[in-house]
Amino acid sequence: MKVLVINCGSSSLKYQVIDSDTENVLAKGLCERIGIDGVLTYQKTGADKIKIEAPMPAHKEAVSLVLNQLMDPETGVIKSIDEIEAVGHRMVHGGEKFACSTLLTQEVLDTVASVNDLAPLHNPPTLVGVAACKELMPTTPMVGVFDTAFHQTMPAASYVYGIPYEYYEKYALRRYGFHGTSHKFVAKRTAEILGKNPEDINVIVCHLGNGSSISAVKAGKCVDTSMGLTPLEGLIMGTRSGDIDPTIIQFIANKEGLTLDETMNIINKKSGVLGISGVSSDFRDLGDAAKAGNERAQIALDAFAHRVVKYVGAYAAVMGGVDAIVFTAGIGENDIGTRAAIASRFGYLGAEFDAEANNIRGEEAFISTPDSKVKLMVVPTNEELAICRDTVEIVNGLVAK
Ligand code: ADP
């Protein structure tokens, strides 16, 4: 089955066509500057990347351009739209309503829209993307795969905030967690690599990218994760602060004469390792700057690693022990130095770091010594493939009914 996987942002739309039988990516790309002017990037696997400037006043035009490109007689991968048998959409926030992926019926879409308050930046664009696809492919089944779903198994002790309970009851203010598709994929793959049943192991997944989060996966189920009501909580990220004393927001707003929205913009977009270093949010730039003697870049890298180490310790404690600590996403898969700065500090848990084995990028590997009691691993994530798999499972279920 050929599955179109869509990840829609407010002005961008990432897509992949995956053949679910072979799990090969047939083509992928990105629409950018939707609503501004419009740039389409397209790459058929094995061929050169194509970049086309084309007007994209809204998401519908972007999806239409993608479909036309996919059917291009020379560079396309399908002959007609009907060859796309299902579309899998990355959905950000499902609130408490979705603990697994689901067919996107109108009723489901209305339910997603009802939690828009919880993710005002992320949910509306995904719904616009789904509507655009439905209009252009009215008979093709659409499946929603939620970033929050995997974390719905967290117990109340993990998800409740220390604020009046009525706010949870009235507004569903609680911790939800994100990157769930990645955490689930990596935790499952970890068990496979270890030749274990997921129910028999405790895994800590460190998804370290531009946005970063950690999850504690006990016996195959998420019991805690570092992001909260929004992706702002937890680790120090590229541009997000992660955990801070909330009073800081009031303090900055007062001292700098800023509105709450302006202050939140600083906490979301100008903080994290970018804010600390003043150099960049990209770890490659930070590594280069630190090597060249930039002290603040080094502090940013140290602070990032420190917080990851702290969360891993906390999650080992929460689960009463850990069998594997796993690194994934842009930094986790590729940044050898940052990984070493973190992974070398779990000797007390029984994880013996192997510096030589750590000398790899973007591939599955053990980075602990062969006889290490607790395994340190790199397991590349693949959120698009995870979305494709869930989509196929749900669509096949429909056929079976
Ligand atoms: P996103 O959250 O945008 O999906 P990614 O998971 O793609 O982020 O991670 C992006 C980050 O990964 C970059 O900002 C960069 O800091 C880091 N990264 C990617 N490749 C490397 C590399 N070779 N060395 C160090 N850091 C890298």
Number of helical runs? 14
How much is the average pLDDT?
A: 96
Strands across the major sheet, in which order?
5-4-3-2-1-6-8-7
Bound molecules: adenosine-5'-diphosphate
Helix content: 25-40%
Largest sheet: 8 strands, mixed
**Residues in β-strands, percent:** 15-25%
Instruction: Report the span from N to C terminus.
Output: 18 Å
| General form | globular
Please state the CA-atom Rg, rounded to the nearest Å. 21 Å
Class per helix and strand makeup: alpha/beta
Unreliable segments (pLDDT under 50, ≥5 consecutive)? none
β-strand number: 14
The helix/strand series, from N terminus to C terminus, equals: EEEEEHEEHHEHHHEEEHHHHHEHHEEH
Keywords for this entry:
401 residues, alpha/beta, six-stranded mixed sheet
Please explain how this structure is put together:
- The protein has 401 residues and is α/β, with parallel strands linked by helices.
- The chain is 38% helix and 20% strand.
- The chain has helices spanning 59-70, 106-114, 123-136, 156-159, 165-171, 180-194, 247-256, 260-269, 272-277, 283-291, 295-319, 329-334, 336-343, 383-400; strands at 2-8, 13-19, 24-32, 39-44, 49-53, 84-91, 102-103, 142-146, 202-208, 212-218, 221-225, 324-328, 365-366, 375-378.
- Strands 5-4-3-2-1-6-8-7 form an eight-stranded mixed β-sheet, sandwiched between helices.
- Helix 7 crosses helix 8.
- The protein is globular and about 55 Å long.
- The model has no long low-confidence stretch (mean pLDDT 96).
- Residues 209-211, 238, 282-284, 329-331, 334-335, 361 line the site of adenosine-5'-diphosphate (ADP).
